[in-house]
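queue> pop job 88
queue> type: inverse folding (structure -> sequence)
queue> payload:
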């Protein structure tokens, strides 16, 4: 075990105090009258002990206070040295400042009790006002440094607490910033995927058909669909750029899509899925004229859009059914069912991020999402791939944008 090294300032204090005390002793400047029973050099022993304890005033403050007390008492039996008294006041101060929290409370109290008791005792014994003066001197060398140390310690602890609070505030601010950046990146990733994936999937499907079939008419139709989806994809990308520039006064973002645009989305899906034997049917059972919060409409639109895109990639030939239902003031239910079978592979490559994005959107609105294969209805395909999202709807909806 390595013993802590004394602080540099404490070493300087101990050396300077000892040399100063020796100088006072050599000049014959003592605090008491000559003691015939002990030689004058004996006064250097308490001085040396008191100087040595200063080396450990920060490391062992309470132990050094005890050593300083013994040295001060021993000094009373010699001719005395002023440096011993000064170093004792420093030992009291250090015990309060560097000692444990209990010492910061007890040392001033004990010093005050000693001061009062000593003053009363001296007045009773001496029967002279000089006893009061001696009591004041005792208070100066015990109570005053203790109170000073307590005040300085309180200021240091308050400063440390303020610095800690500032660091915690900065840390929380940084955490909030990171969370905000992460949330914004996730939002933009969902927007980019949902806006572009539908069009790129259609382009991939029809370009594959154009390359694999040596039929001029089929190729012409495929190129038409490819051009239509390219133009729509560019339009969506411009809207995304508008979202990224929301802070600019010169570039206002385009309005977010709503459920009113589902008819156009389904019509485009019919065109894109015709070559794959897919048909799309929209069954909107919502009551007309009821407005929904913008985050709910955006989330519902994107869920339908992503489900349609997945159907174009993976579904077996057949009908894709899109169902919307609304319980006024409570929930909006979005359900998309597509024929499910064992295909050798998707018609177009995918990233697998579609379901993740849908789950994130639903989670932001504190809703529920279930996606997976289920038994088909009587008279229909044996199995269907069902996506069912239940989105809470409140009139005071203030959820973050999905």
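queue> result:
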């Amino acid at each position: 075990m390595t013993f802590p090294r004394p602080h540099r300032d404490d070493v300087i204090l101990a050396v300077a105090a000892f040399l100063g005390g020796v100088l006072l002793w050599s000049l014959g400047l003592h605090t008491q009258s000559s003691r015939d029973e002990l030689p004058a050099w004996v006064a250097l022993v308490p001085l040396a002990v008191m100087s040595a304890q200063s080396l450990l005033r920060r490391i062992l403050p309470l132990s050094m206070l005890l050593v300083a007390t013994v040295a001060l008492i021993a000094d009373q039996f010699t001719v005395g040295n002023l440096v011993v008294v000064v170093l004792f006041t420093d030992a009291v101060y250090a015990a309060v400042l560097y000692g444990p929290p209990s010492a910061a409370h007890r040392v001033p109290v004990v010093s005050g009790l000693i001061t009062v008791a000593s003053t009363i005792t001296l007045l009773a014994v001496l029967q002279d006002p000089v006893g009061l003066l001696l009591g004041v001197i005792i208070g100066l060398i015990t109570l005053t440094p203790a109170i000073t140390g307590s005040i300085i310690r309180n200021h240091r602890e308050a400063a440390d607490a303020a610095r800690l609070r500032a660091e915690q505030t900065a840390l929380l601010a940084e955490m909030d910033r990171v969370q905000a950046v992460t949330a914004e990146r996730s939002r933009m990733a969902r927007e980019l995927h949902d806006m572009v994936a539908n069009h790129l999937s259609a382009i991939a499907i029809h370009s594959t058909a154009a390359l694999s079939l040596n039929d001029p008419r089929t190729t012409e139709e495929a190129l038409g669909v490819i051009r239509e989806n390219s133009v729509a994809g560019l339009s969506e990308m411009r809207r995304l750029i508008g979202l990224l520039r929301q802070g600019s006064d010169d570039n206002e973002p385009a309005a977010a899509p709503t459920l009113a645009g589902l008819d156009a989305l389904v019509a485009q899906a019919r065109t894109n899925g015709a070559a794959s034997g897919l048909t799309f049917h929209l069954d909107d059972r919502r009551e007309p004229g009821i407005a929904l919060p913008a985050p709910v409409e955006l989330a519902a639109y994107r869920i339908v859009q992503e489900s349609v895109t997945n159907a174009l990639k993976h579904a077996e030939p057949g009908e894709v059914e899109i169902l919307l239902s609304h319980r006024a003031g409570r929930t909006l239910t979005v359900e998309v069912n597509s024929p499910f079978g064992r295909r050798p592979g998707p018609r177009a490559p995918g990233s697998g991020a579609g379901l993740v994005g849908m789950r994130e959107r639903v989670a932001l609105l504190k809703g529920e999402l279930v996606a997976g294969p289920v038994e088909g209805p009587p008279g229909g395909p044996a199995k269907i791939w069902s996506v069912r999202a239940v989105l809470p709807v409140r009139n005071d909806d203030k959820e973050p944008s999905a």
